[in-house]
Amino acid sequence: MIFLHRNRSRFSLACCLFLLLSGCQLASPTPTSPPLTSPSAPPPPPVVDVRVGALRGPTAMGLVKLMQEDENGDSANNYLFTLAGTADEIAAALVKGELDLAAVPVNLAAILYNRTQKEIFCLAVNTLGVLYILEAGEEIESIGDLEGKTIFATGKGTVTEYSLNYVLQGNQLTADKVTVEFRSEATELAALLEQGMATLAMLPQPYVTNVLARNPELRVALSLTEEWEKVSQGAGSFITGVMVGRKAFGEEHPEALAAFLKEYQQSIAFTSEDIEASAALVAKYGIVPDVAAAAKALPECNIVYLDGEEMQTAVAAFLAILYEANPQAVGDSLPDADFYYMPGN
């Protein structure tokens, strides 16, 4: 018994030592790998001052939401907006490098490209057709009814003149059959109509809405956009304005340019989605002084956003038609492929 007891004691002691040693091993710290760290996020792109110009009118309307966001400090870039009364002001500022981006008539974009050794590129279409022929009377029911008439218009040497000529010539209405008299300002044409000194005048929106609101005796006789489509037979849509930029700016600030175009597209979409709010902003920023007139005009201004291949196809077709009618309309030669900004290239 004692022997067994001793053996058990020795056995128990051995077991305890074994367990104690085992426990120590189990309790010893387990080597661990260093904690995983997530890769640091790339720094946000720097805020860039972007100088944007536009003409007061439809081509500027798509900017109003972005103008508000910039004013509130919610835009990706720091935008400096300039609104001008004439295309010449915008063109001069672009050439001098005083503007980085600008909304301009589509043919002026091509002219600037040719005159600056291809330093200007087209970013997006922002406005389709906005021209209408108003009549004080009921004589004009079709384009053929213009024969023997005098049409007052603005925009000599611009898309307005070339487009009207294209439509008239496409309907065999030569200069000996229809007289076109140009004035410098749309407000002057509106006054001529209201005072009964003219019975026909071609005006752009939003002047059309303003004139009709003040004089119920006037009416829209013809849409130049519709007449263009008939003559072109699907060869090209009527385009009024585009957003252009200096290539040097795009090369120096590609992220800022991409951010602008994203915000610009969203701003243009806003003008279609919320007419009431957009009209208030159009009036606030002095593009159209009256909110009610802006609300009526916005749906008729054909404000759009076309970029990439869709933009290139539409603009190239329109410029080709203008070039065929008058090469000077696009700066004597059609732009090359590098005129069209392609995101990602």
Structural key phrases:
5-stranded mixed β-sheet; single chain; alpha/beta; 19% strand; disordered N terminus; 6-stranded mixed β-sheet; 345 residues
End-to-end span in angstroms?
96 Å
Structural class: alpha/beta
Secondary structure: number of strands: 11
In angstroms, what is the radius of gyration?
33 Å
Order of helices and strands: HEHHEHEHEEEHEHEHEHEHHHHEH
Please state roughly what percent of the residues sit in beta strands, choosing from under 5%, 5-15%, 15-25%, 25-35%, 35-45% or over 45%: 15-25%
Note the main sheet. Answer: 6 strands, mixed
The residue-averaged pLDDT reads 86
Unreliable stretches: 1-31
Counted by DSSP, the helix tally is: 14
Spatial strand sequence of the major β-sheet: 2-1-3-10-4-11
Helix % is: 40-55%
Gross morphology is globular
SSE diagram, text form:
Blueprint: H1 2-27, E1 49-55, H2 58-61, H3 64-71, E2 78-84, H4 87-95, E3 101-105, H5 106-115, E4 120-128, E5 131-136, E6 150-153, H6 159-170, E7 179-182, H7 186-194, E8 200-204, H8 207-214, E9 218-223, H9 224-232, E10 239-246, H10 247-252, H11 254-273, H12 275-284, H13 291-297, E11 303-306, H14 308-325
Parallel strand pairs: 1-2, 1-3, 6-7, 6-8
Antiparallel strand pairs: 3-10, 4-10, 4-11, 5-8, 5-9
